Task: structure prediction
Amino acid sequence: MKRIGLTALGLLLLSHAAAAQATWSAISFSTTAPNVPLVVAAADTLMGSAAGKTFPGKLLLQAEVADGNNPATHSFVPIYKTAAEREAFVQQLQADPVWNTFLAEMAKLTQPVSTTLYRTVQSWGDRADTDHVWMGYAFHVTDPVAFLATINKLMASPTGKKFPGQVYLSAVEAGGITPVTHLVSVGFASEAEMAAWNATRDASADWAAYLKESRKAAEFLGANLSRDLKSWGAASLDSLAGK
Result:
């Protein structure tokens, strides 16, 4: 991900892409613990406005629980089913004074870190809105077709069929000024559920086979752990990902 200037926070909910597939952004910023409730209040005001109420997707505010030397403490994650829906919403939001008010509040409360736009390639598992713990696995993929095939094979295996959460493979569309080309996002209901699954997964031959095959198509670059603090928007993850 790249470092950005303060004005780039304005990309929240406003990123553009040509792809018709589901798209989402990770807009990361740093703030202090006392300012977090103020950030939530600012987002509440934005999403409760006349323009905000027309939002067709789902907006998550996530706390970065473990992300190495990344200075970000939180991320806004707006998710849209299509670029067309995003564009129509953007036009309404930009015309509402509440948008500039929101940006002014963010300038006082936060420091922007990075903005990355993703395109969802495929998803697996039970897409439940109650999942609020997320692992993000970053990859530099050299053979996208083969990499997708390795995940499909794992999820169709006896071990994969026991998976309790939801998985998304996303490709970086913009903002990828690093080796990262793809992100595998894995959602769980809790850290306890995640730990239990990881123990089952790591002990299986199916996982060992996945590791061997995926390394031929991609380089694993690292992972981060995030937790949802709040969400806005009436759309479900299931409706955004499609059937």
